[in-house]
Amino acid sequence: MKRAYVIGSGPNGLAAAIVLAQAGLRVEVFEAEAEPGGAARTLPLTLPGFLHDFGSAVHPLAAGSPFFSSLPLADYGLEWVHGDAPLAHPLDDGTAVVVERDLALAENAFGADGPAWRNLVQPAVEHWQEFAQDLLAPPLQIPHHPLQMARFGLNAMQSAERLVRNHFSNPRTRALFAGLAAHSFLCLDAPLTAGIGLMFAVTLHAVGWPVPRGGARAIPHALIGYLESLGGVVHTSRRIEAQTFRDLAREDALFLFDTAPRQLLIVAGHWLTPGYRLALSRFRYGPGAFKIDYALSEPVPWKAPECRRAITVHLGGGFEEIAASEHAIDSGREAEHPFVLIAQPSLFDPARAPRGKHVLWAYCHIPNGSTFDMTSRLEAQIERFAPGFRDCVLARHFSPPATLEAMDANLIGGDVEGGAMTLRQVLLRPTLRHYATSTRNIYLCSASTPPGGGVHGMCGYHAAVQALRRVGAS
């Protein structure tokens, strides 16, 4: 096979396209939307001059991606911008837990929990490239560094609740770790939530939590620039539907889908076996997101001024409150006091807003497909830690689950993780075949494959490598 088609131009699709182009295939990428990038897009959602990230905003896994790090993306405009500190977590006493990128400084800030924090993260921080290579690999693959991964795995398989109980005595440290673990969209008493929390804890010190200068769109734009240097072509506003795919499928080519399993079934279901279609139809999507983008007249008036040192701020109080919020979502209810994730990139990248003005990115978790308006609850959490916030708001853009899915068909019911990150769906994502389908030349390369959600490109990388091996093109 000398030709490959990639359906979808998210970071995973573009990563797959680059691997295929590096192998000498003629590659074309088809994107349904006018702007490439999937969820990694930057759009003028509120007022003129305010640039908002549609999906992901802060990108530790992109900055630390083994595949992205191997590419000359800086030559194509990708520049990482860091805050003074990676993360802040305000508390009701008017202070905030601020995590420094320097591990020694962070250890001091955690007081009595400092040694435990260091013991949990230091080995992976010091060997990030090797650790990331194994962490972001397909499940059940023999790791390159088995002892390191075995040590990490002993803690990672636990629930966040158990890890916190066994390692941390300070409520401030426990609150911080709850916010990290809540990125899993799972109950904090569920297996693997400790692993998600630890992964993000490691990235705080290993690579930081940066934003791309100019917004998330800088990531796909840099990937496209490099792909084009290899002869690849990206078509925007070119939605591939079942009939279009029938025409393409006549060719002797590889097909990689950077889509949710549901989209693969809709577009290429005719070419898949009944058993595989049934397995894909059983794939579970996770909770959704309720997102608001703000144009602000001034920075957020945090009670704890140290929150301005960080691009990312977690809102939710202590461990118990954040755990209750995630438990409500798991039970199909909207949380009264939701865990809210905040990004304030214009504090460190002033080009994102007019002079003196700011953008704010905020979302909370919500049951998949929920139509409940979380605005008042989300903003109450911001006001709780930043009284007077609403007075700073010039404009809002609301993105409930239905809007997210309408703007990106992969975000089923507002699920931004590509599917629930349960233990079963970590190992069987989306099926036992992982990237391969029941048809030799059709592959899935989206966040619905290992290692799952996040902007790192590793789903696309692994899918393309497997595809090349199976068809004998590498």
The count of β-strands is 16
Number of helices: 18
* Contiguous uncertain segments of 5+ residues: none
Q: In terms of quaternary structure, what is this?
A: single chain
Number of domains: 3
Strand content: 15-25%
CATH superfamily of the largest domain: FAD/NAD(P)-binding domain
| N- and C-termini, Cα separation | 10 Å
Query: Pairing-aware structural class of the strands and helices?
Result: alpha/beta
Radius of gyration: 21 Å
Helix content: 25-40%
Mean pLDDT: 96
User: Strand order of the main beta sheet, please?
Assistant: 7-6-12-13-14-11-15
Highest-level CATH class of the largest domain: Alpha Beta
Description:
- The chain folds into three domains: 3-42 and 60-78 and 212-283 and 419-471, 3-Layer(bba) Sandwich (FAD/NAD(P)-binding domain); 43-59 and 80-101 and 287-416, Polyamine Oxidase, Chain A, domain 2 (Alpha-Beta Complex), CATH 3.90.660; 103-207, no CATH class.
- It is 36% helix and 15% strand.
- It contains 18 helices and 16 strands.
- It has helices at residues 11-22, 60-63, 103-109, 114-126, 128-135, 146-156, 160-167, 171-181, 193-206, 218-229, 242-248, 261-268, 274-281, 319-330, 375-385, 401-407, 423-427, 458-471; strands at residues 3-7, 26-30, 42-43, 52-53, 80-81, 85-90, 96-99, 211-212, 233-235, 254-257, 288-296, 310-315, 340-343, 358-366, 393-399, 442-444.
- The chain has a seven-stranded mixed beta sheet, with helices on both faces. Strands 9-2-1-10-16 form a five-stranded parallel beta sheet, with helices on one face. A two-stranded antiparallel ribbon has the order 3-4.
- α8 packs parallel to α14 (319-330).
- The chain is globular, with a radius of gyration of 21 Å.
- It starts with a strand and ends with a helix.
- The mean pLDDT is 96.
